Each structure stands twice: as structure tokens, then as C-alpha cells.
Amino acid sequence: MISLDDVCRRLFKSGDNNVVLYQLLTSISENVVQPPHWVHQMLMRCNWEVAVENTLEDLHVPFVHRHSFHKLRLKRLGMQRHGKHSIAFYQVGDERIVKGLQSMSRWFVHVDPTVYFHLLIYPNVCLSSVGGFSYSLQHYEGSKDGTWFSTQLFPGKLAARAPDLRSFFDEAARFNRQVFEEDAEICANVQGRGGVLMPQEQRIAWFREERDKELA
Hints:
Layout: H1 4-12, H2 19-29, E1 38-44, H3 48-55, H4 61-64, E2 74-82, E3 85-92, H5 95-104, E4 115-121, E5 125-130, E6 134-143, E7 146-155, H6 166-187, H7 202-215
Helix pairs in contact: 1-2
């Protein structure tokens, strides 16, 4: 199982000399509670590249995650390429969810209920978070049967006076599991790279550029 420290080391050794992402990951690793609250593994019946590309675009969210992830009503604020890696930033648009997280924020350190980010550490590790309340670390590993997918949920750093919030993180884990299972179901129906990419799928284009360089 990959760890946050492993991800930092991988980035540092990647040759990209990406100080921005390294500092971001170092900061995150200092603001999470370890060990993870929840660990989950499953086999996805698809190529690992398909699984990674799926998580790099948000066009499918209203259709595949209609009753789960789409409830956040995310609005993409921007995408950035950092060498082989990429990150996307979003604003959480659902007012009820934002208000609910705002009420929880007093129990946490360094959180912002209005933001979501998704980071790809090339080629097959992703890290995402809603506001810093918890962090989801995902790893996609190709196998002869498809893709072994593993994920860990790390709680955000809690304030000294925080009560027992296990039920809050249990709900975050349940939510994540639903989203990942929905992704696995749709990815099982995808064969090959598909057609022309849309501008909203720029992160997939960047990913493919790096893969094509490796395979050339």
C-alpha cells in the first residue's frame, strides 16, 4: 500500500524538480492524521490507463455520479500542468454542503469548505480532498485481470478540543466507496482511448503525451 511519504519521495525523485508540488504534498502530509481511517481495495475490470483517465476528467460526473459526487456541484476553477503531473481546482457549489462543512470546520485545522482539488502524481497515483477535512489517496496498478485499485482515507488534522469524529469519517469513507464503485462500473465498459478529446479533458491529453513519450 502506497503512503503519503512514498508519494513525496516519488515526486522528489521524478526528475521534474517540482518544488511547488513537493511543498504542497509535504504540507499535506503534516496536516493529516495517520494511520488512515479507512483502506479499501478492489479489482477494476479495465486497463489501468482507462481508470486513471477517468479520474482526470469531470464531464462524466453528472451522469455517472448523479446521486453521489455530483451533489457537490463542483465548478472547475483551473487546471495546471507541473511536468508529468497535473492538478485541478474546483469550487464547491452546493450551499447546503458548504454550510454543513462550515459548521464542522471549528473542529479542524487548516480547512476550507468551499474548495476541492484533484492531483495526479504521474503515472498512477491521485490525491484529492474536499476542503482538507479528509484526504483520499488512490493507487492504480495494472494486472492481467484489469486494475488493482487501492484507496486510503486520511482524516484532516483536528483541533485540540475536537470531539470523536469517527462517524464523520465513516460517512466520508462510505461516500468515497460509492464513487469509486460507480467509476469501476463505467470504466469496465470502456475499450481503448476513444475519440477526440474535448478542451475540458486537457489533463487526459497531458497524461497521454507523457505515456506516448514513454512508449515511443
